C-alpha cells in the first residue's frame, strides 16, 4: 500500500492544479454548512445571552416583543409607556431590585437611554475613559457611539428634536459627555446613557429658566398675583445644564407619575421571581411582566427556521458537488486510459491500479479534511467576535 | 540567628498588616447627608463601618453642594443614608445608584409637614434659598428619630447579616437614650402649654408638633444682623404672639441679643445637629438643647 501511496503522491504532485481544484471543492462543500452551523449557534447564544442575563422585564401591556426590543436592544420603536411608580412598587415589594429604563429619544441617531446607575452595575459596564454620570445634563457614551461620533469626555452632544414640526415641543438639550464605556459588543456600545431625570428634562417635564418672580424682566410675565407668577412663551428655557444654572432646573408634577418605557426587575431568588410574576398576573391591569429569555427564545426559533432552508440548499449543492467530483474522477480515468494501459502492460494487476486510484482519492480527501478542520478551528475561535462585529455594525 | 529572628518578625508584621487591611476592606462604607444620620449609623455599627459625612463643618447640609468628586464617592459607597423630606437639595440634581439609597424617614413620610410659600433668603456664600416645600428636620421629633435609627439598623443588617446581634444591641442602647430625651421634652411641653415662642429659622416644625410648642418662625441667621424689615416682621408677629423666648440654631450676635432683650425677648440655642458640633457629639448636643429649653419653664 505504501508503494501505491508513493506513486499516488507523485501523481498528485505532478498534477497539482487539478488536485488543488478537487481539494477546494471538497473543502468548501464540507466547511460551508459546518461554519454556518458554528456561526448560527454562536449568534443564537449571544442573542439569548442578553435576554438570559435579564431576569424579568416589566412594561406596558401589548407586544412583549416590542418591549424586549426596546429594553434589551434599544430599538427604534417605543413601546407603550408606564410610570415611575411601577418601578418604585417593585422596590417596595422587597422581592426584587428595579432598574427603570426610558428609551425614547435619540441623539444623532443613537438611542438615549435614561436609567439609573444600577444599570451599569447590572450589565457590568466599565469605563474606558471619564467617569460615571454625576449630575443632571451629563451623558455616558457606549464605545461604538463614541468612536463614530468622535466624542470623548468633556465634549458635548445635543439630543435630537422629537418632532421637527412640533415647534412648541421638546427643546434639544446639550449634554456634556462624562465618560465612555468599555466595548462590550452589545447594544450598550451604541447607546447614549443619561440619568432618568435628564431624559425627563429632554421630554420637557423638567426645565430651567430665570426666576420670573424675582427678576425684573416684566416682558416675560403674563400674569402676576400675590402667590403666583405666570410667564408667557417668551420666557427662555436653558438648553444646557451648567454649574451656574443647575439649581434653576425643576420638575413639574410628581416624579412617580413620570414616564418610563420599562423596568428591569432583578429578583433576589427563584422564589421571589415566582411571587413577583404571580402578583403581576393577579393584578394585571395595564402592566405586564415577561421573562426575556422566553420571548427572545421564541423569536430565535422563528428566525432560525431559515436555517432549515439553508441546510436543504447546502445538501442539494453538496450532492451536486459530489456528483461533479465523481464525474471529475471518471473523466480523469478516461483521460488517463493510456497511462493505465502502460501500467497494465508493465505487468501490474487491475487490483494494483485500483489501489493507486484509491490512494489518490484518500490523499485528496485527507488533505481536504485537514484543511476543513483547520478552517473550522479558526472560525470557532473567532466566532464570538465575528458575530459581535456583525451585530454591533 | 539574628537574621532568622528578623525574618520571622518581618513575616509576622506583614501578616498582621495584611489581616488588618483585610478587615478594613471588609468594613461597610456608609455615606450620609447630615451629622444626625452619621451619628446614628456610627452608633449602630459600633466601628463595623466607615460612616462618611463629607460636608464641610461650617456648611448647612440642606443647601450644601458637593463636588463631582464627592458625588463619585457617594456613588462608590455600600450604602447612602438619606434623611428624606426633601433634605439635601443637591440630591435632586445628582445621579446616585437607587439600590444603595435608603430614605430613613420613609416609615413616616405620610406625616411630613408641608410648608407654605415663604420668601427666599440668603446666608453665607451659598446664595439665597427657600424653605418652602417639606419641613426636613424630622429627627427633632425624637420618636421619628427612633424610626430613622431603626431604618438604618434594618438596612445595615441586610448588608451584614452576621452582625445582626451587634447592630440590634447598639440600636437598643441608642433608642433608650433617644427615648430619655423624648420624655424630657414631653415634660417641658406639658409644663408650658401654649407659651408663645419664636424660632429664628423655620426648622423646628417637628419639635413643635411632637412636644406641643406654640412656635412661630422668622428667617434670621445667627451670624447676620437682621434687617429693618426683619425686625418689623418680628414686631408684627409679637402683636398676636407675645413670645418671650427666641430659639436659635446657634448663638446669635451680641447686638441681636441686646436688641431682642429690648423687646423683652431672651435667646436660647437649640442646635438641630445637622452638622458636626465644635465639641461633644450629637447626644451631648441634644442634652444641651434640652437644658437650654428648660429655661422657658
How large is the radius of gyration of chain B?
A: 22 Å
Average pLDDT score of chain A? 86
Instruction: Using the CA coordinates, give the radius of gyration of chain A.
Output: 33 Å
Write the H/E string of chain B, N to C: HEHEHEEEEEEHHEHEHEHEH
Q: Do you know the CATH architecture of the largest domain in chain B?
A: 3-Layer(aba) Sandwich
Q: Into how many domains do the coordinates of chain B divide?
A: 2
Low-confidence stretches of chain A: none
Describe the structure.
With about 400 residues, chain A is of the alpha+beta class. Chain A folds into 2 domains: about 1-45 and about 305-390, no CATH class; about 55-205 and about 255-290, no CATH class. Chain A contains 12 helices and 16 strands. In chain A, strands 1, 3, 4, 5, 6, 7, 8, 9, 15 and 16 form a 10-stranded mixed sheet that branches. Chain A is elongated. The two termini of chain A are about 55 Å apart. In chain A, about 30% of the residues are buried. Chain B has 2 domains: about 15-175, Nitrogenase molybdenum iron protein domain (Rossmann fold); about 190-295, Nitrogenase molybdenum iron protein domain (Rossmann fold), CATH 3.40.50.1980. Mean pLDDT of chain B is about 90; it is low at about 5-25 and about 120-125. Chain B starts with a helix and ends with a helix. In chain B, helix 2 packs across helix 4 (about 140-160), helix 2 (about 35-45) packs across helix 5 and helix 5 runs parallel beside helix 9. The longest helix of chain B is centred in the middle third of the chain and has 28 residues, at about 165-190. In chain B, helix 2 links the parallel strand 1 (about 30) and strand 2. With about 300 residues, chain B is of the alpha/beta class. In chain B, the strands form 4 sheets. A 4-stranded parallel sheet of chain B has the order 2-1-3-4, sandwiched between helices. In chain B, strands 10-9-11-12 form a 4-stranded parallel sheet, with helices on both faces. Chain B has helices at about 1-25, 35-45, 70-75, 140-160, 165-190, 205-210, 230-240, 255-260, 280-295; strands spanning about 30, 50, 80, 100-105, 115, 120, 130, 135, 195-200, 215, 245-250, 265-270. Chains A and B meet through strand 3 of A and helix 3 of B.
